[in-house]
Amino acid sequence: MAGLARGPARCDIGAMSEHDKIALVTGASRGLGAALAEALAGRGWHILAVARTSGALEELDDRIRGAGGSATLAPLDVGQPEAMVQLAQAVLERWGGLDLWAHCAIHAAPLSPAGHIDGKDFQKSVDLNVVATRGLIGLIEPLLRAREGQALFFDDARAGQKFFGSYGTTKAAQIALARSWQAENAALGPRVRIAAPAPMPTATRARFFPGEDRSRLTPCKAEAGRILAEIL
């Protein structure tokens, strides 16, 4: 497929029916993104899994294929505009559009007092959480409209909480952008959904809250199932 990065024997689309629904999951390698990808694959969707980490994507693919599902792996950085343009073109050529886009890709900068936020970390948060999301919306909107699809965002910004100045600011900006897109497309589509996920035992949360009792958190697979039950 032109424009799509491929791992060895990982992008065989032959098992996929032309009638399958197509889900793009950005940030699919771990946590909620991986759980959503597996849950959708279990419902018969074909997954286009995007993340920077090839090894984690291949592990996801093994789990999906082991359960009888199908996936295409795209080890790409959503913060690279040229790569995302090529991805969108490849999706259009191969499938004609998308049925769902679940956006789980984030940059989670270390927690810090507002007066001590590292400039490079803050800029990376702005670039990935806000700028890249803006670019993706422009590229993916026509793909979703082509198949009457929907987009899914996740509001976990913790805006205004102490030490969350970098993550909270940029994730809140991302959700504000998504809400504007949602309002603009209320009549014509695509439908834009914004979920509020429960606290989950992800690697990001472990960095934010070291020493937390993770047994009290909601497993990612359970939360993915709950969210999909609400939107599908």
From TrEMBL:
<comment type="similarity">
    <text>Belongs to the short-chain dehydrogenases/reductases (SDR) family.</text>
</comment>
<dbReference type="InterPro" id="IPR002347">
    <property type="entry name" value="SDR_fam"/>
</dbReference>
<keyword id="KW-0560">Oxidoreductase</keyword>
<dbReference type="InterPro" id="IPR036291">
    <property type="entry name" value="NAD(P)-bd_dom_sf"/>
</dbReference>
<dbReference type="GO" id="GO:0016491">
    <property type="term" value="F:oxidoreductase activity"/>
</dbReference>
<dbReference type="Pfam" id="PF00106">
    <property type="entry name" value="adh_short"/>
</dbReference>
<protein>
    <submittedName>
        <fullName>NADP-dependent 3-hydroxy acid dehydrogenase YdfG</fullName>
    </submittedName>
</protein>
<dbReference type="GO" id="GO:0016020">
    <property type="term" value="C:membrane"/>
</dbReference>
